[in-house]
Amino acid sequence: MNQYYNTTYRSSCPSQSSYFSSSDYVSTSVHIVTSISIPLSLYGSYCVIKVTPRQLKNAKWALLNVHLWTVVLDIVFNVLALPFLFFPSVSGIMLGYGQYIGIPSWFLLYLIQALVSVFASAAIGLLENRQNALQTRWKINRRWVRVVINICNYMVACVTVIPPYLEKFDVQAMAMEILKTIPCPVPEFFDPRLFFVTNKPSLATMLMAIQCIILLPQPTFYVLHTWYHLVYAHSTRVSAETRKMQFRFLLGSLMQIMIPSTVFMNPILYIWFSVNTGYYNQEINNHLIFIVSFHGLLGTTCMILVHKSYRNHLVRMITLGKFPRKSVIRTNPISVIVSSARL
Fold first, then answer.
1. Spatial distance between the Cα atoms of 184 and 281, rounded to a whole number of angstroms
2. Signal sequence span per UniProt (predicted)?
């Protein structure tokens, strides 16, 4: 590697002039995002624990579970790992603080992969919680069955991505093999901290597809059934106001889940494309890291803004309690007089 860098690379490859292809761009931009997302996430946790209405107390812990996994993923990705990756090879270096406390790079990347799927499993649990609150036969009534299903989802999230990390290979030999197809990567590729996850990139994408096949049908069913029940199959045992509140909460939960999920989806599609076609563009790789770093900020912001109780609490805090004004219920004096006369 050193010989290649000092001879072939320095003589044949043009200097990397683009700031967006450098590790400085990734490090600086992600740190700025993190400085905003961490305090906001703490405020979001407070809102879920203290501000959630009593009518939604059964959903509070499922909502908090989704939010906390978002925060954990945020800390691992933005603070501990901060990956600088070289797709189409499943390799990179870590720029975060995890390297200074001795956490192996491969383990940090495994945590990122697993936590993305754990977030999806927690989201499934939230949607199942909303579907289970309905007055319908099509729900799981036994608590132990719900617990087992949730455990299985978390197992799929954590175990499915393990096989590539069990391989043994020579990093230097793999790096030289990559240089045959990508002779002029960015200089960071020659960093001694360089690591590889697998020499079979297609295996990683196949395992991601298996996860999607197992997990995606569940939220699809919960959302469609809850939507149908609240919109079309009205139950006489539930008041219109309660049904309306449940519907608003469902929409808010969907937005809270879908917005950060969309942040992940675009990088996943690009990784699949890059790995299977051999396309290399370090600027796009870096932009994707920057985009993914927004998942915690977007998820928490969405949660606060779409749920009315959290949104009102934020407005009252910003305006020092002046807005929004609490509605005052006025009693009609005529009705009071009539009622008294009848008594």
1. 11
2. none
Asked if the structure places residue 118 within a domain, the reply is yes
CA dist 260 → 58, 142, 155, 213 (Å): 23, 31, 22, 20
Q: In this structure, are residues 136 and 226 in contact, taking their beta carbons and an 8 Å threshold?
A: no
What residue numbers bound the domain in which 212 lies?
1-6+18-319
Number of domains making up the chain:
1
How do residues 246-267 score in pLDDT, each as one tens digit? 788 888 888 888 887 888 888 8
Q: Which residues contact 251 (CB under 8 A, 6 or more apart)?
A: 306
pTM beyond cutoff 0.90? no
pLDDT, tens digit (0-9, with 9 covering 90-100), for 324-337: 765 444 444 444 43
Retrieve residue 136's tokens: 């319908």
- Res 308: pLDDT: 86
Does residue 23 sit within a domain?
yes
In a domain, 335, yes or no: no
How much is the pLDDT for 343?
35
Which residues, 6 or more positions from 9, have their beta carbon under 8 angstroms from its beta carbon? 183, 184, 190
Look up the CATH number of the domain holding residue 165. 1.20.1070.10
